[in-house]
Write a structure and sequence with these properties.
heterodimer, A: mainly alpha, MetI-like fold, about 85% helix, about 0% strand, B: alpha/beta, six-stranded mixed sheet, four-stranded antiparallel sheet, 12 strands, about 35% helix
């Protein structure tokens, strides 16, 4: 049976968890993932083979193993770190391996002539990346990065494994206390949607703004 | 650095050291040999047009000189300086990228596909390298860029993006961009081949103007035979990576000695 009272009561509790935990982890981890992903993508391209191969292996390893395992391993291995810090680091690193693939595709979509023009003008590698390649590649990569950020956002309930009181954990708690889960879980679902949808729209706008 | 191998090269200054020298140049792509022990020199201020059927190695020569391809064997000298490989104690050693950049700075290139940076405006395309490679101030680079863009007839489009320009306009920006580096050597790689026919004239006019108003050494790959005739001092006919005939354009275009040249010219003119 649906209980309106429980529904309304759960909203402020879940909203608090959403703002304090889910959103904070998502934003910080997305920034970390976007930066690290870029570093990996450039590294894979610029490093000599003996250094790029182990990097590729590590990235594949992280990408192909489950996120909750990473959370638990890091949480117990570094027990001086707060659960929240572990959450941000693990989400950031895990998703950076996916974002690296997106960047790679974006970089590979740049036509060879762009690199050749940069060479013909003797632009140093750093300047070629910064002024020529990345502005074009990131524009191609942005929709994909946005999708990964939203995917990460939806994965935040995994934080339950390391006892971070994020929104779904709170919804479960609330449901347990009141012997009814439907209301609080509905609120959690709606909050996810309410946050994801504008983010997707915002990404599309940003994409348009970066067009030339 | 040998200087006595080029008895029939015209227009040599600078103590007889040629502007460009290819010495025993070999270029292979996999098992395909494109250039096999190629030797030639280009004098200071000389304009040389490379003609020949596609796959004969003309574009590869320009790309080697621009360091866009790796030299399989041999040496390329620019004003007597090694470009990518030097001879040390009788051994062939590859130079480091910083050393290569020093000599490469003297060379500019205009591409068939323009290759402007689409994320930058026209003027930003032109000032990018002067600022970040030559160390010019922004004001100085901009002033120079505006004057070059005026010369190529695009002073009204300096703030446009390349995608807003026609192919011919893009190519003229690319010429201004190459000229902004004040190159001693300019490489033109089929610069009108990607253009609609009605846009070719403007681009060639700009290049003729560059040829007439500067003493830049030029290596030109083109199918525009009239242009080649108008600007070049020498035409080299290539086939299968070898120079099969070379000489003054009047001679090559009107009265070629080699049968292969005759056939090629009949096919393209």
């Amino acid at each position: 049976m649906w209980d309106n009272q429980l529904f309304l009561e759960s909203i402020p509790i879940l909203l608090e968890a959403f703002l304090k935990i889910t959103l904070v982890v998502t934003v910080l981890s997305s920034i970390l993932a976007a930066l690290l992903g870029l570093v990996w993508a450039i590294g894979l391209r610029e490093l000599p083979g003996w250094a790029a191969a182990p990097l590729r292996f590590v990235l594949d390893f992280i990408r192909m193993t489950p996120l909750p395992v990473h959370l638990l391993v890091i949480y117990y291995a570094f027990n001086n770190l707060s659960a929240m810090t572990v959450g941000v680091l693990v989400f950031g690193v895990h998703y950076s391996t996916y974002m690296a693939e997106s960047y790679r595709a974006g970089i590979e979509s740049i036509r060879k002539g762009q690199w050749e023009a940069a060479t013909a003008l003797s632009l140093p590698a750093s300047r070629t990346w910064r002024a020529v390649i990345l502005p074009q590649a990131i524009r191609n990569t942005l929709p994909s990065l946005g999708n990964w950020a939203i995917a990460m956002f939806k994965d935040t309930p995994f934080l339950i494994f390391i006892s971070v009181p994020e929104m779904v954990t709170k919804a479960r708690e609330f449901g347990g206390q009141n012997f009814s889960y439907v209301e609080s879980m509905t609120v959690a679902g709606v909050l996810f949607l309410v946050a994801s949808y504008p983010t997707a729209v915002l990404m599309r706008k940003l994409e348009k703004k970066l067009a030339y | 650095m040998p200087t006595d191998q080029t008895p029939d090269t015209p227009a040599q200054g600078n103590g007889g050291v040629p502007r460009v020298q290819f010495e025993d140049v070999v270029k292979r792509f996999g098992s395909t040999t494109v250039l096999d022990n190629l030797n030639f020199t280009v004098g200071h201020g000389e304009r040389v047009t490379l003609i020949g059927p596609s796959g004969s190695g003309k574009t590869t020569i320009l790309r080697l000189l621009m360091t866009l391809e790796h030299l399989t064997d041999g040496y390329i000298w620019v004003d007597g300086d090694p470009l990518t490989h030097a001879r040390q104690d009788g051994k062939r050693v590859e130079l480091r990228s910083k050393q290569i950049a020093q000599v490469r700075k003297r060379i500019g290139m205009v591409f068939q596909q323009f290759n402007l940076f689409p994320n930058m405006t026209v003027v930003d395309n032109v000032i990018e390298a002067p600022i970040h490679v030559l160390g010019q101030s922004k004001e100085q680079a901009r002033e120079n860029a505006l004057s070059l863009l005026d010369k190529v007839g695009l002073s009204h489009r300096v703030d446009a993006h390349p995608s807003q320009l026609s192919g011919g306009q893009q190519q003229r920006v690319a010429i201004a961009r190459a000229m902004a580096m004040d190159p001693e050597i300019l490489l033109l790689d089929e610069v009108t081949s990607a253009l609609d026919p009605e846009l070719v004239g403007d681009v060639l006019a700009v290049l003729k103007d560059v040829a007439a108003s500067t003493d830049i050494t030029m290596l030109i790959v083109t199918h525009e035979m009239q242009f080649a005739r108008d600007v070049s001092d020498r035409v080299m006919m290539f086939d299968s990576g070898h120079i099969i005939e070379e000489g003054h354009p009047d001679k090559i275009f009107s009265d070629p000695d080699h049968e292969r040249t005759q056939k090629f010219l009949q096919a393209v003119i």
